[in-house]
Amino acid sequence: MRKNARRSILAGFVASATAALTFLGTTPAQAALPTPVSAATARSYLASLTVATEHSRTGYSRDLFPHWITISGACNTRETVLKRDGSGVVTDSSCAATSGSWYSPYDGATWSAASDVDIDHLIPLAEAWDSGAWNWTTSKRQALANDLTRPQLLAVTDNVNQSKGDQDPGTWWPSRTAYKCTYARAWVQVKHYYGLSVDSAEKNSLSSVLNGC
C-alpha cells in the first residue's frame, strides 16, 4: 500500500474517532481548570483587600445570584464544570453526564457518578454577600456564580461541599493538606478580582497558609 493511501486511511480513522467522541459528549481535549495566581501574588492581593466586619445576612437569597446559566448549547455551568474537571466524561443529548470519573482535590476521593459530585463555589454565595455582593447588581452576582475564567468553580465530593457550607478560611479548610496552598491562592484571587472584603479571622488564616506556600 502506498504511503499516501495509508496516510489517507489513518486521517479518516482519526476524523471518525473524533466525531464519535464529540457525538458521545466528550472531547479529545477538554478545557483546563483555571490555575490560581502564585503565592507571592496572592500575598500581595491579600495585603490590598479591605478588612471589614461581615455585612448582615438579612435579605440574602441564592436566587439573587442566578445560576446555573446556559454556557453552550444544552450545557449549563454545572454540566460544563463536570466535563471540564472530569476524566472520560460522556454526556447525553441534554448534556447530563452519564459516565466518567471525578477527583475531588478537597479530600482526595474519586467518584464515578456525577450525583456524588457538587460544583463548589469557592467563595460561597452567602460569603460573597457578606463581603460586598449585597450591594452588587444582579449581573455582577451572576458573573461570580458562573465564573469559569477564575478558579471559582470546582467539582468536589458532595458531602464535603455541604460541610463547607458558607464558611470562609477563618473556620474551614480542605481536609487534604496538600491542597491548602492552592485553595488559599484561589480564594484571594477571586476576592481580589471582585473587590470583596475579608474579615480579620479570615485574613489571618489565609496569611498563615500563604506564608508557608
UniProtKB/TrEMBL annotation:
PROSITE patterns: TAT. The keyword Oxidoreductase does not apply. Keywords: Signal. It comes from Streptomyces antimycoticus. It holds the Pfam family GmrSD_C. The lineage of its organism: Bacteria, Bacillati, Actinomycetota, Actinomycetes, Kitasatosporales. This is GmrSD restriction endonucleases C-terminal domain-containing protein. Residues 1-31 form the signal peptide. Residues 110-207 form the GmrSD restriction endonucleases C-terminal domain.
